[in-house]
Amino acid sequence: MKKGFLWGGATSANQIEGAWNKDGKGPSTADMMTGGTHTKRRRITPILEEDTYYPSHEAIDFYSHYKKDIKLLAEMGFKTFRMSINWSRIFPNGDDVSPNEAGLKFYDDVFDELNKYNIEPFVTISHYETPFGLTKKYNGWVSREVIDCYVRYCETIFNRYKDKVQYWLTFNEINVLTIPGTLFSGAGALAGGMESIDFSSSENDNAQMRFQALHHQFVASAKAVKLGHSINPDFKIGCMIAYMCNYPHTCNPDDMLLTQQT
Description:
There is one protein chain. The protein is α/β, with parallel strands linked by helices. It has helices at residues 13-16, 55-58, 62-75, 87-90, 101-116, 132-138, 145-160, 183-187, 207-231, 253-261, and strands spanning 8-10, 80-84, 120-124, 167-169, 236-238. Strands 1-2-3-4-5 form a five-stranded parallel sheet. The two termini are 36 Å apart.
C-alpha cells in the first residue's frame, strides 16, 4: 500500500448512531422517515407515529458502542473512517443561538478514540441530516436563510475540532439534488403532496425547489471552505459527489448513446 494512502470505510450519522433524541439532540429529516422495502416506499411523517419503524432512531447504536465499533475497525486495519456529524446533535433546531455541549463532547470522544488507534477521521458535515427544525421553519435549503445556519454550524465544529480533524466534506453527494425524489433527503424540504421517497418518479417532485436548494448548498459550501481555511490553513476540505452507473436498455448503439447522454 502506498505511503499516505487512506484505506477505510464510510458511514453517516443517521445510518449508525441511533440515540436520535438523547442528550439534547433534536430531530433530523432522517428521523422523520419510516422504514421501507423493495416493494414499499419509505414514508415522510412530519409527526412521528407510534408503533412505526424509523431506522435512524436506533440504527446500530454507535452512540453507545462507538468504542467497541472503533476497536473492530482498527482490527480490520482501517487507516481512515469516514463519518458524519449529526447537525441536530450540535444545533437541535438548526438555528439555535448556542450549540449543544453534550453533542460536541460526543464527537470529541469519538475523535479521541479514533486517534487512539491512529485512524484518521474523514468528516462529512452534512449527510442527509438537515435539522427538521429548519424544515418546519424555512422549508430547508429552499430558503437562503439556511446558509447562515449552516455556516454557524461549520464555524462551531471547525473551531472545536481544528486539532482533531484534518479532512472535511461539506456535503454528501451534493449533486444528488439534480435527481427527482431527493428534495426531502437532500435538501430537507417538502413540496406539496409529498408523502414518500421515490427516486423513480417525478410525482410530487419540484425541480425548481430542488435546484434552488442546490444553489444555496453551493454557496454554503464555498463559504464553509473559505471559513475552514481561515481557521486552520491545513484543513483539506472538499465535497462528495454521487456517481451512479447506468445501463442501456439494449446493446443497440442508439440506446448506449442515449445512456451516456442522460
